[in-house]
Design goal:
This protein is mostly helical. It contains 8 helices and no strands. It is globular.
Length: 218
């Protein structure tokens, strides 16, 4: 059991690092810059971000219910796959500016946010299932540190990548292409998190110790 738990936690740390580096680091930096290079103003960028937050908040409760049906591991897997699919749909088409592209972006951002809610809501249950009481404080502390450090690193890399790609593409950083390809690279890195989640096991350590039982007694 200890080997399974240790294995699951290590793989989750890899997953948290990948998600922090890409979604919370590179994507959070480059997303709005990409939209601005498509000549969208603050009104539409604000609408896009607000719609994403609204969808995340709205789907957080159903995402918790999915844990009871599929389990936290499978639900996290679905969440990451949905985020990657959403970004692929958001970035791959080269659509003409207009109402259809507006609607396409809004729908795909909702899909991304649903995936993010599905993943993040179920991370704590997965860690709870994969750790004992003695390990829990330490594991959650490391998880928080990994998220912050990987997010910082992703933002740093995201700041340099468009300039590097613009020289390779022989285009200006005022053009959307370097930002589109930077986001695609980030999305491919995020897709590797699917494999780290799949490598985890369904075994958990939901075993009540005498100390836990004493804590719940009046």
């Amino acid at each position: 059991v200890y080997q399974n738990v240790s294995h699951n936690v290590r793989l989750y740390f890899i997953t948290a690092g990948l998600i922090g580096f890409t979604l919370e680091g590179m994507h959070s930096l480059l997303f709005n810059l990409y939209l601005s290079r498509l000549d969208y103003g603050p009104e539409f960028i604000g609408l896009i971000n607000g719609t994403g937050m609204w969808a995340f908040a709205l789907f957080s409760l159903p995402a918790g219910r999915l844990n009871h049906r599929w389990g936290s591991r499978r639900t996290m897997l679905v969440g990451v796959a949905t985020i990657v699919l959403g970004y692929a749909l958001f970035l791959l088409p080269t659509l003409e500016a207009g109402v259809f592209r507006h609607g396409w972006f809004l729908v795909t951002v909702v899909l991304i946010s649903i995936g993010a809610a599905t993943f993040f809501v179920n991370t704590a249950p997965f860690l709870m299932e994969s750790t004992s009481l003695k390990e829990r404080d330490h594991v959650f502390s490391i998880y928080a540190a990994i998220g912050a450090l990987s997010g910082f690193t992703g933002s740093l890399v995201g700041g340099f990548l468009p300039g590097l790609l613009s020289s390779l593409l022989r285009s200006s950083t005022d053009h959307p292409a370097p930002y589109r390809y930077s986001l695609l690279i980030s999305s491919l890195l995020m897709a590797s998190a699917i494999f780290s989640i799949r490598a985890t096991t369904s075994n958990s350590r939901r075993q009540e110790t005498s100390e836990e039982q004493r804590n719940v007694r009046p």
